[in-house]
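Reviewer 2 asked us to include a model.

Predict the structure of this chain.
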Amino acid sequence: MIKANNLLQIGLSILLGCIQHMTWAAAPAMQIKDFARIRDMAVATDGSVWIVDYSVKHLNPDGTLIKQFNFTAGSDFISAFALAQDGSVWLTNLDQKAHQHFTAEGALISQFQIPIYSSATNSPSEIAIAADGSVWATDPSHNRVQHYQADGQLIVQFGAQGTSPGQFNSPNHIALAKDGSVWVTDGIEIVPDGSSQSVSAKSYRL
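Predicted model (structure tokens):
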């Protein structure tokens, strides 16, 4: 079985190749082999690419480095990464137990605490930034989705453990559609006989 990290690297290589219509071999600097333990990535509206491995790297579509900044605690503590429409950067830092907001240059703007989680493998997973700058986050430990203002004030939360509408079993990825709906992947869904697991996607409009 190919490891998830290898799949992410393959996908990143294809993505950057499509953006630039050229292979990584033609890029003058920083090829895919330069990355290690990619944690997350995002594509900006200008086509540039942000990658989280042992640092946050901002790349041109041809793979050349624009800038990077490092973590205080290391990438193992970063569980999520997202871009805001103004170009600023959001990270979920498990070492600091906080959602953190940075400028594109890596200067900390603000941060707010995240709910207590039960373990490193069942922790706040993904974030998405709305057009108004508010933050959506999945919380697998409590089987819920939370919506915060940029200053950390909770707007709304929903979810509970289960398989009925509005319920989750370890929600993972989250994305926002242009129509205002929220898409969430449910990371673990047990079939009735309890013998297997699958991943499903659910959409909510608030």
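The radius of gyration is 17 Å. Residues 1-5, 14-28, 118-122 have pLDDT under 50 and may be disordered. We have added this to the supplementary material.
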